[in-house]
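ok trying this again, last paste got cut off
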Amino acid sequence: MAIDSHMHINTSVLENMPKYIEDINKNHSIRSVINVGLNSTTSEESILISEKNSKFYSAVGIHPLYIDSQDIHCLYRLADNDKVVAIGEIGLDNSKANFKEQRKYLISQIIIANKLHLPVIIHSNNSNKLVIEIFEKYVKPEYGCVFHCFQPEIEALKYLVRNGYYISFAGRITYKNAKKSIEVAKMVPNDLFLVETDSPYISPEPHRDEVNNSSNIKYIISKLAEIKEMSYEDIDRITTENTRRLFKKIR
């Protein structure tokens, strides 16, 4: 049974949220999902969903594109819940020019995660090198880290592997032009990779350009099985074990 290690179900991105929740609850091939917050509002909503649905866990954090008027200290309150397994998603995004402010938020949230003994989920849009610089100059995650929907860079990968940080693969690895992602997948040790859908975004083939959902995790697992020349069952088992090792509060 697979774990979708990163997805988004909240009212700001989905019109028919109850159906998505019901579909996950009824899908016997999905063990658990981590519903990831983007700001204080969606983090709060994720917690409420996880409290009502046993398959759902939460990550709470302030995404770099949502930092305007956000109180970082709310994370202490939000994370005080058994179903909250991580601080995230947090990170840097070069599509906006406010890198100084993004960096401040990232550093502060890693510090909070370390104080709370929680791993972090990193968003890094063309910013792997800059995030790594923050790790080296300011603060490192002390309780685990995953670069979600990893943008393939070999030097960044080498650093993450040396530090025991995780790489998460999403729908893009199924695309025909995913040569760099495939190269990275071959290099990632079997104990350091996860699978995710990032739904409702980044649908894999053969559902590209459709609204994504957690049931599509099977296509990502299948592609990784092909790349690593392993069985579907082995990739399913390995990624489930890895996810539970990183996010220790998942039962």
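PB: full thing came through this time. The chain is about 40% helix and 20% strand.
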